[in-house]
Amino acid sequence: MGAGRMGQVHGPNAVRTPGLRLKYVVDPRPGAAQALAARCGAAVATLEQALDDPAVGGVLVCSSTDRHLAHALAAVDAGKAVFCEKPIDLDLDKAREAQPRFRDARFVLGFNRRYDPHFLALKRRLDAGEVGALESLQLVNHDPAAPPPGFIPTSGGLFKDFTIHDLDMARWLLGEEPTELFCAASCLVDPEIGRLGDVDTARTVLRTASGRLCVISNTRRSGYGYDQRVEAFGAAGMIAAGNVVLDTVGTLTEDGLGAAPIAPGFPQRFAASYRALLAHFAEVAQGLAPSRTRYADGIAALALAEACGQSARSGRAIRLQGDA
Amino acid sequence: MGAGRMGQVHGPNAVRTPGLRLKYVVDPRPGAAQALAARCGAAVATLEQALDDPAVGGVLVCSSTDRHLAHALAAVDAGKAVFCEKPIDLDLDKAREAQPRFRDARFVLGFNRRYDPHFLALKRRLDAGEVGALESLQLVNHDPAAPPPGFIPTSGGLFKDFTIHDLDMARWLLGEEPTELFCAASCLVDPEIGRLGDVDTARTVLRTASGRLCVISNTRRSGYGYDQRVEAFGAAGMIAAGNVVLDTVGTLTEDGLGAAPIAPGFPQRFAASYRALLAHFAEVAQGLAPSRTRYADGIAALALAEACGQSARSGRAIRLQGDA
Amino acid sequence: MGAGRMGQVHGPNAVRTPGLRLKYVVDPRPGAAQALAARCGAAVATLEQALDDPAVGGVLVCSSTDRHLAHALAAVDAGKAVFCEKPIDLDLDKAREAQPRFRDARFVLGFNRRYDPHFLALKRRLDAGEVGALESLQLVNHDPAAPPPGFIPTSGGLFKDFTIHDLDMARWLLGEEPTELFCAASCLVDPEIGRLGDVDTARTVLRTASGRLCVISNTRRSGYGYDQRVEAFGAAGMIAAGNVVLDTVGTLTEDGLGAAPIAPGFPQRFAASYRALLAHFAEVAQGLAPSRTRYADGIAALALAEACGQSARSGRAIRLQGDA
Amino acid sequence: MGAGRMGQVHGPNAVRTPGLRLKYVVDPRPGAAQALAARCGAAVATLEQALDDPAVGGVLVCSSTDRHLAHALAAVDAGKAVFCEKPIDLDLDKAREAQPRFRDARFVLGFNRRYDPHFLALKRRLDAGEVGALESLQLVNHDPAAPPPGFIPTSGGLFKDFTIHDLDMARWLLGEEPTELFCAASCLVDPEIGRLGDVDTARTVLRTASGRLCVISNTRRSGYGYDQRVEAFGAAGMIAAGNVVLDTVGTLTEDGLGAAPIAPGFPQRFAASYRALLAHFAEVAQGLAPSRTRYADGIAALALAEACGQSARSGRAIRLQGDA
């Protein structure tokens, strides 16, 4: 479902994932559907055709954000397993309203960072108690370059499109729901983004009931690649996941060290996570494992993203109910 | 003036600084005064004796925080150049009130981080435009281990004693006054600190008029040494100052890399900055250079520290007037 | 040709390489052939069947070392393009004798390190003049753990089986043939290796006509993973290619930094190089590019490997004729 | 004794070393003697005056290489403790002949690398068994820039002036005497050095009786600073001591990482080792500790340096008797 940017990531991965076979590509744009289908050895079909085919066990929802929920609902109502790209929807109320229909679904949400081997290694060390009880967290998520202004209006804005990944990471790593949130945001990258009512640079502070603190650092344009880092501070030390660099080569001259850039964007940085995500979906679709990124996680992160916007606009800290 | 922790840093440095000679050590505790004087080849004197000596050109105020202002005033009134440890005072109003008396003084405030070679190298790269216009800032200042509870009541608390360094760094690097501040703080390290009305873990967000953002990360106990880092994000990249490690040795086994700890505390990490600070004081005292860390910088940082406390207690963002 | 260790690397890669399709798997052991064929969607065939099939354009020679040359000759005589694992043969004279029959062949030798993205990045920087004229070279090639003793007798020994890669790298990077060689070797890892007449730890020094120097460091058992590094020293600096680590995560405690191990073996470390090698073979087989690792490169490296053995046994430096 | 390059290092250090006081500076050049004496609060004297003064307990021999032995002998005959810069002498036979006269001397040789905190940390880890039994060693010692040609004729050449440090390091770390040595050397940096009969680029391989291997990498001009590294390979891993960098600051842009240069020369890199060396001399002079770098160490390293030259000239490996 969807032969755009994310469909082009997940389609070819599905082909290579043991337990998955890509039968159909569905996209309203025939050219895009045809191209991806050819690349993946799949057929082009309509949504109805695909859902009516009893040989189809699951659906990858990679359509545009405003169609995620409708497509996911259609698939779940047809009894299919559903992989759905984030966010579930831009409208928190609509997403909450639909939640009961996913209660028994085999559903995996595309919070791919939870499947990244580096972040998983950090989580494993944290859970193993290498630094004692977690006290605070620093998440850095900087995009390499601002999206085209045309993307902004339908994107949901910085918080629902981008920060939502970090809000999910925060929940995953903190092991506790945030109860307070403050977000300061600016438009420093591209004034056009500001004119469209969005921001491009933000810092968000979360606090949990037990007092754990988390800061999320976001920008739409780093100028130096796709900066993806985590620092977890515990009672006895810190664990950090650093950036992935393009190669291990460095030049030393009298001017100092010159080394390779970091990964330029999500396709390079998160390739392994996308493969692991689909491998997990294959397990979930076959009933072999419970989902690690559930519908409820999508709701919780979306609620936090909404609070970010509210805080950034008002200049006030927001008290949260807890949602998950 | 003061033979305690900071006097024992600055006294011996003064001995080695070209242009300075340490003539007297003043401390109400005769034993402490005597010990430091012996170590530095100086004599013990009372404050009056020292200030009356026309051969004395300047005073290093290293007394306890609650005496800083009184001692600095006595020295400036006696026409001496003054080096004063931070903070100027715990009471912002008192410090503001005294400000006119320092108008013409040769006065250097002990914001030593501005003199650290690593942070100076970062500033130089930033000013050279290596990453374009500065957009945001991440400051990490984590103490290795919590102070004894007895230190808390007279310390001014986390913000005036500790965060004040970062607030000064933020002003120095941002090149613009913060206009908004939010601080979330917790007591996670030692419940005794909470019982004394203080906090030990905090995140502070600053926003300037032009929208620049800065996050300050503090804890009283890192568990892994004295974590002192800066990341400056510009329009075309980032500049980072990392930690200093104890040695360059690492062991590789099948379990991975084991490398040396970072500097355990301020004496190791900031030794060079303290020497540079006194060298600067020697210049200022001799009228050869204007002060790089002025009384007004102390006021501005203190006002921000007070706002941190206000924000942390109320859970609200604070609007700032600008002070410097 | 060959469903053993290297066949299991190259077979699946061939399946994924644009321009290649794996039609047959040939191996005298029916079970091994069947298993790999099934994994790759290929059929099992005899050598004759495969070479007789006019639809077969090329052959991947991944058989045991003592069969490399015979299989490569059969394939080239049948007019097929040939990819051949190193070494061409253990007997330098036999390999030289056969050389004329490969004169017009589309032939790619499996010196995969030349295709590794990290080493290519180093070569690119070197060729771009980042450090001026190359003066000396340090190559580190340490296997993680000693092979089973049963492997030693047919392996060709440390130099022809293992060092041969570095000898090729040296020729590739030095851009000049070595004219002198000295090799000091010991048996420190496993006395059984010594009993079989081989060594497991060696240092080889090469010198070229213009005086460039190269050191090769080898061990059969590093104890810390697959250490693969290059340092190239030029007139104006150095370029180094470091190890690939398993993840970017590190833990800081009062004991220091604990970070991830390096890649444990060639499958992890050189996966990308094996893919690039087959992509290059596809080009060469289709006549789109000249081979970057030719038969003559195999002869030259083999001659150097033989000189290593001679030097190590005699304790003398060896003068070389130049062979390529 | 000697107010040249090394006198200017050790003189001021002596002033600051507890247990030492610098009474006289001796140098045939009155201007040099006067300048250093003034800087150190010492008096200028002749050798005789200094040795005749019963208040003088020890002598620092920092004169030109060809006077080391004569000055050390004069001092030891006068019953003084002796610190002597390396090499003891350029003539191995003369140095050996004088050896009995130092039998009971309190004598410390200036092999400063053994006192470097980084190399000591490596040695400590090695001795603690972090990587099991040592098997091989890689020593890198690259000077930043070629010395003026005028220095070459009296220097003893690359091996006795420069490699001698590494030969001592090798003996110290291997814990066993080398029994075989091969050295390949070239003149690549400055043809003038070649015209004077010296070389500027070399690789030396040592082998001990038990089969341990060591490679020493030397150049007179690195182009990127003072490269000083050690890698020790054991049965269960490796320990490496890396370079010291000037600051911890790095800039990330789309072109990659730009970080600070390594220490440019020995004054920056080995400052701590020179201080530790004099502190050790103070202990030895007062009879509180046995010397850690003895006359015999100087002889052994000198014999190896001579073998380097012999091997480089002849192109042959050299069998060694063992000397220490």
UniProtKB/TrEMBL annotation, chains A, B, C, D:
Keywords: Oxidoreductase. Residues 2-103 form the Gfo/Idh/MocA-like oxidoreductase N-terminal domain. It comes from the Bacteria. GO terms for molecular function: nucleotide binding; oxidoreductase activity. One of its GO terms (cellular component) is cytoplasm. Residues 119-239 form the GFO/IDH/MocA-like oxidoreductase domain. One of its GO terms (biological process) is NADPH regeneration. InterPro entries: Gfo/Idh/MocA-like_OxRdtase_N, GFO_IDH_MocA-like_dom, NAD(P)-bd_dom_sf. Pfam families: GFO_IDH_MocA (PF01408), GFO_IDH_MocA_C3 (PF22725). Belongs to the Gfo/Idh/MocA family. PANTHER family: BINDING ROSSMANN FOLD OXIDOREDUCTASE, PUTATIVE (AFU_ORTHOLOGUE AFUA_2G10240)-RELATED, NAD(P)-BINDING ROSSMANN-FOLD SUPERFAMILY PROTEIN-RELATED. This is Gfo/Idh/MocA family oxidoreductase.
